[in-house]
Structure formats: C-alpha cells, structure tokens
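thoughts on these tokens:
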Amino acid sequence: MQSVTYFYREPRKTGVSIEGIFRLVKDCLKGKVEIKEFYCDPALSRYQNTMLAGKHADVINHITGDVNFLALGLRGKKNILTVHDMGHYDTLKNRSKLHFLIYKLFWFQLPLKYVDIVTVVSKFTYNKLTEYFNFPEDRIRLIYDPVKPIFQYSEKTQLHNVPRILMMGTGVHKNLNGLLEAAKGRNVHLDIIGWPSDADTAKLKDYGIAHTLYSKLTDEEVYTRYKECDIMFMASFYEGFGMPIIEAQSVGRPVITSNIGAMKEVAEDTCLLVDPTKPEEIGAAIDRLINDRGLYNEVVQKGLKNITPYQYEIIAQQYAEVYEELSRL
C-alpha cells in the first residue's frame, strides 16, 4: 500500500475548503492508500514549520495548498503541490512590491524547484502557472475540486413570491456591489453568506434591498441555504475554481456567473454568463430566470449534467493515479 502524508496549513474553524477537499479524498482512498496528516503549528514560525515538516516527510508528500513554502523542508523527497488559484499573487503585485517579491520567492519560485508534480484545479490556473513561472507542462496535472456529497439534488417546485438570490462570500473580488446595483429596484431577497463591508451594508440600507446575512455556517447549514434559494449568484471578478457553481448545480439551482476565467471554464454553457463589471447584465439575467420558468428548468438540467466530473470518487481516483505515477519515479 502506498504511503502519503498530507501537509496542511494551521488548523482553523472556518475557511476550511482545502481541508474538506482532501478529507474527502482521504476517506475515498481508505484501504488503498495510507494517508497521514501534518498540520502547521500556528505557534511556530514558517521557518520552524518548514523544518518540522521535513521531520514528517513520507515516501510521498502532498502539500495540499496555501503552505507552498513547506516544500523547502521536503527537499530530496517525492513531492506534490496543489495550487488552487493565483488570486493573491495577481493582486499582491499591485499592492506591495516588497511583499509580492517575498511571496513570489517563497510560495512559488523556490517551492517549485522541489516538487515533482503540481496539481491545479482549473485550466485557468494551469495557464497562469506556466505563464508566470514557465513550469513544465508535463509535470502539471489538472484535477478539479470535488463536490461534497452532502449537496444533493432538491427539486424546486415553485419560486418564492420574492425570489431569493444566494451569494457566497463578500470579498471585493466576489462582486457584491455588482449584485447590489443589479438588485436595486427589483423585488428580490438576497441571502448573503459573509461579512459585507460598511459601504455595502450602507448600500443595502439605502437601496432598501431585502436581505439576510449569514456567517460561520456548517456544511449542513450551507446546504439549507442552497435549497432555500431560487438563484445562485457568483459573478466574481476572479476565482481560482468556483466550487459554489458546482454545489448549487448539484442541488438543482440555476447559477449566474462571470464570463471570464475559471468561472467560465467550470460553467461552460450550463449557467447564465454575464460581464461582472456590468450590473445591467446581472439584472437582466436575474429577470430572465425569474420570468421564464422554461429557461430556469433548462439551466437546472444543464447544471445537473455538468457536475459529473466533480464527483469525489472520480477526483480521489485521479489523485491515486498521481501517487502511483510518483511512486514509479
């Protein structure tokens, strides 16, 4: 049986998307691959965690994301690095040149010297990795993120009298402002998971937009929000993948998403695609789904077909094949 150690960032109560992905993979590969886990210690420096990671090196080591620098402590071993997105890299270079150079060196330039295979979760990230760092394409594997099995289909027989639109996340790149401008003057209710900025909160009040705010939800509570909503909104300016698209489609809800980057890649023709910089396009997409039940049902059915490649059994098998490939090197 192959032996692999997963290397994670420090334990956390929220924002555990990476950990959730690889726990699914681990559970699915039980009895086929022996998987151990290493978590960074928040009480230690990055240097100390890097040295500690080296002491836990296995036959195969998989850095699961967000702690790329750990590869420096695993030099000489068989290593895999998963890169989920390049969003922080792309935005940091416009904010702080010094921080950008440090991040570039310790998250990418040096770690990439000590890994054998990089897995990416979208062709969008694949292209950026090769463009920015000229990383050999024959050492990159495209493996999508898996959808959690809790997100099961739930038929929507009738829309709410005041249609409910769900939005996941409130960072600037999520484009809450675009949704608020689109919702202005429309009879809709926004379910927002996250912490809107003071400016967005003021706009919600000024525009008189009906809304409910949620935070720190469990998977079960998120599933409830998907079931309760009529439309999922994810027209972000940037995403490394866009898992809420697949989750909403799994539950049977139509999605409005961006016509750019990884979102367009994941959605293809199974969502309503909009320019995220144009609230009028977002508003028009909302109106189309609310007023045309035939279109609504068509988008739902396309979404249910789109989710097949993202089933966790398929994703786990793809990782198993990478481990097998690496074991032969």
In short: The chain has 13 helices and twelve strands. The CA atoms of residues 29 and 182 lie 44 Å apart. The chain has two domains: 2-146+311-327, 164-309. The chain has a mean pLDDT of 96.
